[in-house]
Automatic annotation (TrEMBL):
GO cellular component terms listed in the entry, alphabetical order: membrane
Record keywords, A-Z: Membrane, Transmembrane, Transmembrane helix
Record has Flavoprotein as a keyword: no
Name of the protein this chain belongs to: Solute carrier family 26 member 5
Places the protein is found: Membrane
Domain of life the protein comes from: Eukaryota
Transmembrane segments: 59-80, 100-125, 183-205, 255-279, 291-312, 380-397, 417-437, 475-506
UniProt cross-references to NCBIfam families, sorted A to Z: sulP
One protein family per Pfam: STAS
């Protein structure tokens, strides 16, 4: 009954039958196909490439200024109200984050406001994403802060009191902060130049080397750095800021060493802010479908803590650190200090690539969700212009933020008009009411930063998922995280990229190989060791390896072939008159027998391997399944030719199936089908 049911199911399945001649590669090349002749010369190609026309000029302008593609047809009635509400909501979040992330960048808080205005305004014109919110970002700010502290440490600005030689030196914070601003601005200028050059040269593909596990492991490590860096502000203790290898260990040690000097008022205010922000985020997430706009927890914390600090004189009476002076208005443009160029060029490459990878990953995510496309190269140019132009107005490097992007998208943002409105909110504060936030406690900003790290800490959940799906990707995640935590973000990223590349080499050097068998009644071929239904053809071995063949793995490919397809592999015969015999048995062992005359005679010079096969008859053909093989180099081709000669010496034919024409320029295989081999030997 079961067989009849299976037969009925098979009969009900759609089937197809194709009859055609058996083609070989030589026949295809000589009679069936001929390459097109390319009559266009190099000079004509260059002329066509640089020829200018009105259509090409218009396309270039629209590509450079994507706002022109959607602004003329902007549906005011449908989109304007949503964009305005979204922009106001995002601006309210961007304001406290700008102040907070400036502390990570080791510059005065007002420069975070500048970095939340100019780049956001510029991205409206040059960006291709409709939903991401660019501006200050925790990881980027921390990387910039590390460079600023390295180039302008506190030790450089120690000042001894004029009339007190026995007193300890104090730090000239004004001069120190001014120097750190110069470092951050110059670094931003270089980041912008690199991103623009990469975009013009169409180097948007560089992010493919930053795989998702690598980026998530790296950002998780960065979140740990950020969290530890904010502990001193939460506790109100005075410690040195560290950078470089093991900086997170030194920072944590310094905080614990000075924990007895914790400012109780600072700690209480910070903990209240953390609890409140966490509850607000929980409510926003739990009731996001019912709330018209998310509750702006960050701005509430900023306003309340500022009011409490001003009303209770926390700075004077309780020694609570506050933001301090916030100048009103915008600074005039100024040129960066180009004398810092040699010391910052290496760091600028790292910051530029990390910033773009964050931007393009979020941009592609929301573009896929809302059904449009983004141009990676134009995103590079847009980010580069945002950083380069804004750096002349004293900003530090920016990228996009996941938390603000979620706010902008969830509150109904349709286009970058929302980003424009968010920048105007920041501009209003900078120009008119910036002085209001001078009593803002730094512990409140630390609370904002710490709570915003919750999303990154959730990436630890990747570990069990990757353990179940891919051990290699789990290794990339762990190496990226561990290296970035211990070595710092710059060296950690380099180690992670190198390790990810090594995993690619490892995968090609350790491919999975198998012998395939035919599933009766189908055109399917599967591993005979894994599936009971797969059966080998009599006298034919089909060898499959899921990797290309090149110098690094050609020997492994041949070794695996000889292990999987067990038969007489190689005979070292010194005399052509000697005969070679093959024995076949039901077991799977290799035996060595001297063959030179009658059985039993010994000959120390000549021997051969007599291999016992599983099949009842001798193997006469080996099929190499090259379906996964995308390329083969000259070393791989020589290895295949050599093993073919070795098998031919014992009467075994080696043929290749599914060979790509691109992978056979150095090796001309015969493309065959299994039925030909069966009919030929029959």
């Amino acid at each position: 009954m079961e067989q009849e049911a299976a037969r009925e199911d098979a009969d009900s399945q759609p089937t197809y039958r194709i009859e055609r001649p058996v083609y070989s590669e030589a026949l295809i090349r000589s009679k069936l196909l001929s390459r097109k002749e390319n009559s266009i010369t190099l000079r004509e190609r260059l002329a066509n490439h640089f020829r200018c026309s009105s259509a090409r000029a218009r396309a270039a302008v629209l590509s450079f200024l994507p706002i022109l593609t959607w602004l003329p047809s902007y549906p005011v009635r449908r989109f304007l109200f949503s964009d305005v509400v979204s922009g106001l909501s995002t601006g309210v979040v961007q304001l406290p984050q700008g102040l907070a992330y400036a502390m990570l960048a080791a510059v005065p808080p007002v420069y975070g406001l500048y970095s939340s205005f100019y780049p956001v305004l510029l991205y409206t014109f040059f960006g291709t994403s409709r939903h991401i919110s660019v501006g200050t970002f925790a990881v980027m700010s921390l990387m910039i802060g590390g460079v600023a502290v390295r180039e302008a440490p506190d030790d450089m600005f120690n000042v001894l009191p004029a009339n007190a030689s026995n007193m300890s030196a104090t730090v000239d914070t004004e001069a120190r902060d001014a120097r750190r601003v110069q470092v951050a601005v110059m670094l931003t200028t270089l980041v912008g130049i690199i991103q623009i050059l990469f975009g013009v040269l169409r180097f948007g593909f560089v992010t493919i080397y930053l795989t998702e596990p690598l980026v998530r492991g790296f950002t998780t490590a960065a979140s740990l750095h950020v969290f530890v860096s904010q502990l001193k502000y939460l506790l109100g203790v005075k410690t040195q800021r560290f950078c470089g290898v093991l900086s997170i260990v030194y920072s944590l040690k310094a905080v614990l060493w000075n924990i007895t000097s914790t400012n109780v008022a600072t700690l209480i205010l910070g903990l209240v802010g953390i609890v409140f922000l966490y509850l607000v985020k929980y409510v926003n997430e739990r009731f996001k479908k019912k709330l018209p706009v998310p509750i702006p927890g960050e701005i509430i914390v900023v306003m309340v803590s500022t009011g409490v600090s001003y009303g209770l004189s926390l700075s004077d009476d309780y020694m609570v650190d506050v933001v301090g002076k916030i100048p009103t208005g915008l600074l005039p443009p100024a040129a960066p200090d180009f004398s810092l160029f040699p010391r910052l060029i290496t760091d600028s490459f790292t910051v530029a690539i990390v910033g773009f990878s964050m931007d393009i990953s979020l941009a592609k995510t929301f573009a896929l969700k809302h059904g449009y496309s983004v141009d990676g190269n134009q995103e590079l140019i847009a980010l580069g212009l945002c950083n380069f132009i804004s750096s002349f107005f004293q900003t530090f490097a920016i990228s996009c933020s996941m938390s603000r992007t979620l706010v902008q998208e969830s509150t109904g943002g349709k286009t970058q008009i929302a980003g424009l409105m968010a920048s105007l909110v920041v501009l209003l504060v900078v120009v008119a009411i910036g002085f209001v936030f001078q009593p803002l406690p730094q512990t409140a900003l630390a609370a904002i930063i710490m709570v915003n790290l919750l999303g990154m800490f959730k990436q630890f959940r990747d570990i069990p998922n990757l353990w179940r799906t891919s051990k290699i990707e789990l290794a990339i995640w762990l190496v990226a995280c561990a290296a970035s935590v211990l070595l710092g973000l710059d060296y950690g990223l380099l180690v992670a990229v190198l390790f990810a590349m090594l995993t690619v080499i490892y995968r090609t050097q350790s491919p999975k190989s198998s012998v395939l068998g035919h599933v009766p009644g189908t055109g399917l071929y599967y591993d005979v060791d894994e599936y009971e239904e797969a059966a080998e053809y009599e006298g034919i071995k089909i060898f499959h390896s899921n990797s290309s063949i090149y110098f690094a793995n050609s020997d492994l490919y041949v070794t695996s072939l000889k292990e999987k397809v067990i038969l007489i592999l190689f005979l070292r015969l010194q005399y052509g008159k000697q005969e070679v015999t093959r024995e076949v048995s039901s077991d799977n062992h290799v035996a060595v027998q001297h063959i030179n005359g009658p059985v039993g005679d010994s000959c120390p010079d000549v021997d051969s391997e007599v291999v016992h096969l599983k099949t009842p008859n001798a193997v006469h053909s080996i099929v190499l399944d090259w379906t996964p093989v995308t390329f083969i180099d000259s070393v791989g081709a020589k290895a295949i030719k050599q093993v073919s000669k070795e098998y031919a010496a014992v009467g075994v034919r080696v043929v290749i199936a599914a060979c790509s024409s691109k992978s056979s320029h150095d090796f001309s295989p015969t493309v065959i089908i299994i039925s030909e081999l069966c009919s030929t030997r029959a």
